[in-house]
Amino acid sequence: MAELNKRADVPVELTWDLSLIYKTEEDMYKDVERVRELADIIEGTYKGHLDTPDNILACLELFRELYEKLTLTWNYCDLAVSVDYYNEHNVERNNRVSTIHTGIMSRLSFIKSEIIEQPEEVIREAIQQTETCKGYLADILRDKPYQLSPETERVLAALSQTLGAPSEIYNMAKLADMQFPSFTVNGKEYPLGYSLFEDDYEYDPDPEVRRAAFNAFYEKIAQYQNVTAQTYNTEVTKDKILADQRGYANVFEYLLHGQKVTREMYDRQIDLIMNELAPHMRRYAQLLKRVHKLDRMTWADLKIAVDPDYDPRVTIEESKEYIKNGLAILGEDYVSMIDEAYRDRWVDFAKNQGKSTGGFCASPYGKGSFILLSWNDRMADVFTLAHELGHAGHFRNCNREQSIFDTEVSTYFVEAPSTCNELIMAHYLMKTNQDKRFRRWVLSSMIGHTYYHNFVTHFMEAAYQREVYKIIDAGGSVTADTLNRLFKETLQKFWGDAVEIVPGAELTWMRQPHYYMGLYSYTYSAGLTVATQAVRRMEELGQPAVEDWKKVLKAGSTLDPVGLAQLAGVDITTDEPLRNTIAYLGTVIDEIIRLTDELEDA
Questions:
Q1: Maximum distance among all alpha carbons in the chain?
Q2: Would strands 183-185 and 370-372 be described as parallel, antiparallel, or unpaired?
Q3: pLDDT (tens digit per residue) in 349-403
Q4: What is the DSSP string of 436-502?
């Protein structure tokens, strides 16, 4: 396995094309200047005068234009850094533009502060007179009880870049400073890095290579555990301070307020999965142990395939036809978007030094989408790309239909369109081939990738994260020892005696950037719960259910998560969708075990 290339040595066809946002850096800076001009106009014209519906709406129309351009300039700079943290020019440019943005948003913090101080009837009258700013003003009414003084809000806006520093420090340490040594197995030397470990070695069918990579990887990140813990403690302490200062009952109420969900909905995802999914996943773990004839089932072995000899290799070009055919149910416009994504280089497939790990999709308003992943020629990558195209399709639709103010979809729901695509792909593949081994491969891919990633990996993070915030909410703080203990206890509670939690596993909290995004990890299982029920509804009802889903994709944030789910025919005010999803997973695992028995007896 070769060491990763530097970004400059990566073939351009494997990289995304940020010129789709701006042809040149100079064009980007022209929009930065336009943002400054708009800020001057807004401040000079409306500061101190946002006391009538007419003035409020006139101001917000200018602010909407400013916000659109600010979003484009920020994405252009930030995305360039995400694929190469070693590029000093891009890092410096991103910092410079972020500083400009922070200053502007601090100056314009008066907009929300002045509007929120108006009598409620003035705000409601403004809402009645607008479509493009209705969501923005409705959110102001929701925030009214928690708003601080205008001067305090201005200072907090000015400090936004500083308040976001823990996340930047974490990423810089992880992606720029950590240099992994190679490791040796049976006389052969293997290079190591974040991407190589997460995209390759965790899935390696050779237990010696897989476990040696695990040990070498965790030995290295252990050297950074104290500084990473301090960075994270700073992040969660910041959340607690802001929650207290704004008058929330606790830090959970503060972090869930923006998601527009209840504490009950949050706790439900964690408690039910811990209690009801764990037995099913333990059976799956034991199946892996049996099939691979492992001496013991360790936490380092959980991502291996049930049938590693049946793992179709897929090129980037071949993936296009799989995805287009699989997602054709969503309509011609959706398929056209997929063609556009490949043709116009929306996707950064490359594997290079300094690139962010994992995958994400950014969809700057008024432009296409930009998808980051690392391509490994596996069918699993097809599911990952379908997932990210789910985000792209979601925001392609809501960006077209809604004002930019109505595109901030709650994180509770935002993973539903992406995970829905993964399930649609799986159902499509099973319909194309009735072979038992192929069917077992698709089903085990669903469990081992789609559901393991969202219902196990991110759930584990969420359960651990809840314990961290409980400590912080009680006035405490956390150290590396505390975080290691909490994560290990979470793993042990879920896996029981079925999986050995080997030394190093407790450090897994160090690998996840989602902890710097509030209560985000649990939303993966929430979104997949909605997606599972929506896809099952499509299977039962056909096109009417598909049309309902298309309406969901267009709605943006004009509805809260409960409303969006209802539009898709799913009632998340009860625990029924989650219980049904967990029960469905149990039946899938039962079928994988049955097919394995039949194939072994054949």
A1: 80
A2: unpaired
A3: 999 999 988 789 999 999 999 999 999 898 889 999 999 999 999 999 999 999 9
A4: HHHHHHHHHHIIIIIIIIIIIIHHHHHHHHHHHHHHHHTT----HHHHHHHHHHHHHHHHGGGSB--
- Residue 573 CB: number of other CB atoms within 10 A? 12
The residues pairing with 190 across neighbouring beta strands, listed in sequence order, are 183
- What percent of the chain has pLDDT above 90? 88
Give the pair of three-digit tokens for residue 201.
């070695």
Cα gap 529→561, rounded to integer Å: 12
The answer to whether 39 touches 108, Cβ cutoff 8 Å, is yes
Q: What is the pTM of this model?
A: 0.90
Output DSSP code: residue 273. I
The closest of 549, 535, 525, 531 to 261, measured between CA atoms, is 525
Close Cβ partners of 122 (under 8 Å, ≥ 6 residues apart): 51, 52, 53, 56
Q: What is the mean pLDDT of residues 47-65?
A: 97
Q: What angle do CA 268, 512, 235 make, to 5 degrees?
A: 85
Helix ranges (H only) for 273-415 are 278-292, 316-326, 332-343, 379-401, 411-414
Whether 1 has a pLDDT exceeding 70, the answer reads no
Spatial neighbors of 514 by CB under 8 A, at least 6 apart, are 458, 461, 520, 521
The pairing of strands 347-348 and 183-185 is unpaired
Q: Which residues, 6 or more positions from 415, have their beta carbon under 8 angstroms from its beta carbon?
A: 454, 523, 524, 526, 527, 528, 531
Query: What is the architecture, at CATH level 2, of domain 7-163?
Result: Up-down Bundle (1.20)
Q: How far is CA 306 from the centre of its chain?
A: 26
Taking the C-alpha atoms of residue 536 and residue 335, their distance in angstroms, rounded to an integer, is: 21
In the chain, where the domains are located: 7-163
Angle, alpha carbons 116-120-121 (nearest 5°): 135
Q: Output b/e per residue, 418-457; b: 16+ Cβ within 10 A.
A: bbbbbbbbbbbbeeeeeeeebbbbbbbbbbbbbbbbbbbb
Tens-digit pLDDT profile for residues 565-595: 999 999 999 999 999 999 999 999 999 999 9
